[in-house]
Amino acid sequence: MPVVFVHGNPETDAIWGPLVDALGRDDVVRLSPPGFGSPLPDDFPATYLAYRDWLEDALERIDGPIDLVGHDWGGGHVVNVVMHRPELVRSWASDVLGLFDPEYVWHDLAQVWQTEGAGEELVDTMLGGTIEDRAAQLAALGIPLDIAADIAAAQGPDMGRAILLLYRSARQPAVAEAGRELEKAAARPGLSILATEDPYVGTEELRRRAAARAGARTEVLDGLGHWWMLQDPASGAAALTRFWETLG
C-alpha cells in the first residue's frame, strides 16, 4: 500500500526527505513532474492538464492501493487527478485546495509568471546565477540549506520553461473552472492540509470551503508555512498518519 508523493514549484523531491524519515515507512514513492527534477521533453506541453495526465499515467504503473500526497502544484495535480480518475488511488491529500475555490486570486509571483516578458525576467533572476546563489535564495524562504542546495542543483532552463507554461495555462478563470468538478474528488477519502502561515494558497476560509466541497477532512498545521514538511516534519507525518488510520 504505497504512499506516493508529488512536489511542486520550484522544487525537487528533496523536499520530502525529512517527512519520509519521520514517517518511517519503506513503501514510499516520490514522483517528479517533468521539468521539476526530471527531464522536460521537448514535446511536453507543461499545462496543468498535461501534468494531470502525466500523473495518471505514472499512477497506473504503481501497484496499489495508493495513498497520494501532493504539495504546491503537486497538490494541484493530485486534486485534478482525483476529480478525473479517482479509481487510481485509495486516498489523497493536498495542501492547495484553496486554489480551486472560485474566489481564489493567484499570488503575486504567479501573476508575474503569467505575464509575458515580466515572467521571463523573473525566471531568469530566480534560476540564473550559480547553484550557491540559487540555494541562498531558497534558504531565505525557509528551506534548510542542504535541501536548498539539492533543489538548486536541479534548477535551470527546463524548470523555467515549465514554470511559465504551467502558470500561464492556469490563468484564471482556468483553475476556477476546473474547480467546478471539485465534488467529484469526494469519490475517495481526502485530506486538506491547512498550514496556517502559507501565503500562496488562499485564505483559511477558501481552503475550508473547498475541502468541504471535496468531501475532505482538514488537518490544521498551526504556525507552519508553505514548506510545512520541512519546518516540522513530525507534525506533518502525524497528520498524515492520523488520516490514513481512519481508512481501515
Automatic annotation (TrEMBL):
Gene3D superfamilies: alpha/beta hydrolase. SUPFAM superfamilies: alpha/beta-Hydrolases. One of its GO terms (cellular component) is membrane. The keyword Hydrolase applies. Pfam families: Abhydrolase_6. Residues 3-234 form the AB hydrolase-1 domain. Keywords: Hydrolase. One of its GO terms (molecular function) is hydrolase activity. This is Hydrolase. It comes from Mycobacterium bourgelatii.
